[in-house]
Specification:
This protein is an alpha/beta fold. It has two domains: about 130 residues, Cobalt-precorrin-4 Transmethylase, domain 1 (3-Layer(aba) Sandwich); about 130 residues, Tetrapyrrole methylase, C-terminal domain (Methyltransferase, Cobalt-precorrin-4 Transmethylase, Domain 2), CATH 3.30.950. Helix content is about 25%, strand content about 15%. The protein contains ten helices and ten strands. Strands 3-2-4-1-5 form a five-stranded parallel sheet, sandwiched between helices. The chain has a five-stranded mixed sheet with strand order 6-7-10-8-9, with helices on both faces. α3 packs across α4 and α6 packs across α7. The structure holds S-adenosyl-L-homocysteine. S-adenosyl-L-homocysteine binds next to α5, β8 and β10. The site of S-adenosyl-L-homocysteine (SAH) has 25 residues, from α5, β8 and β10.
């Protein structure tokens, strides 16, 4: 099958029978899928996708392709990770051209590494197609650069819960001291506990925090708050998952760089939220 004529000319790889391509779909906006991802959607005859993948992206699939929802389904427990991985092995062995489509980037808190490992252990050939992760692209969508020379030379990506559902056994003290920008995935349930740990590590109560829900989607919501107030404000605003939390002075840059608000005609709130008092591009 060669149905790649809608793609720019390039030697697009073919998804051969018996292969699994493990692909990131980006944070939600279909435009944030990669071209390799689009090529994969056109070529796959079986698509195993997560709940977080925007249905509009799935609409780009070959209409004859079988779609399997590996995400949580209402009222039923989500399939076990091992079951999903073994299902991918079976589909590949049955000679299917399998696309495993995951939200964001498959290797960022997406368990893509585990699936890939199971596949190679069973001798199934794979290709990995990275995606735009929510903790970088989702923040950019909300007007927050994940690094900025004036405020952070490092960024730490953290998951807010471990497989047991608890906060992971991280050294919050070290993270709090070591990283001016902390980006938390799956953190809403334990936001209060995480904020407390970071305050105990010496982070300031008035440190800027932004929570971005449904980043890049039409119903994107952004909460601007502080470390001390974050959990309470998020509860008040009824902000649930999926949301990215970022903690650090860089979050203030949204006051200048909320390009979606500017495009909608809102006034520039503050051209220099970090108070540098000079044009940003100078020395
Ligand atoms: N592999 C994904 C992350 C999977 S973990 C990635 O690279 O983005 C799921 C978590 O990702 C959610 O709980 C949330 O913290 C974050 N997330 C994914 N999509 C998001 C979106 N559109 N807006 C905000 N957060 C999102």
């Amino acid at each position: 099958m060669d149905d790649s004529n809608a793609l720019p000319p390039l030697d697009w790889p073919d998804l051969l029978p018996g292969w699994v391509w493990l692909c990131g779909a980006g944070p939600g906006d279909p435009g944030l899928l990669t071209l390799h991802g689009l090529n994969a959607l056109r070529r796959a005859d079986t698509i195993v996708h997560d709940a977080l993948v925007n249905p509009a992206i799935l609409d780009w699939a070959n209409p004859a392709a079988e779609r399997i929802d590996a995400g949580k389904r209402a009222g039923r427990a989500s399939p076990k990770q091992r079951d999903i991985s073994l299902q991918l092995v079976e589909l590949a062995r049955a000679g299917r051209r399998v696309l495993r489509l995951k939200g964001g980037d498959p290797y960022m808190f997406g368990r893509g590494g585990e699936e890939a490992q199971t596949l190679v252990q069973h001798g199934v050939p794979i290709r990995v197609i990275p995606g735009i992760t929510a903790g970088i692209g989702g923040l950019a969508q909300a007007g927050i650069p994940v690094t900025h020379r004036d405020v952070n030379q490092a960024v730490t990506f953290v998951t807010g819960h471990d497989p047991s559902g608890d906060t992971p056994p991280l050294d919050w003290g070290a993270i709090g001291r070591g990283s001016a920008m902390i980006v938390i995935y799956m953190g809403m349930r334990h936001l209060e506990r995480i904020a407390r740990a970071l305050l105990a590590a010496g982070r300031a109560p008035d440190e800027p925090v932004a929570v971005v829900r449904n980043a890049s989607l039409p119903d994107q919501q952004v909460l601007e708050t502080t470390l001390a107030r974050a959990a309470g404000d998020a509860a008040k605003a009824d902000l649930g998952a999926p949301a990215i939390i970022c903690i650090g002075r860089g979050a203030l840059l949204r006051q200048a760089l909320d390009w979606q608000a500017l495009a909608a005609g809102a006034p520039l709130r503050d051209p220099d939220p970090l108070g540098r008092g000079r044009p940003a591009e100078q020395g």
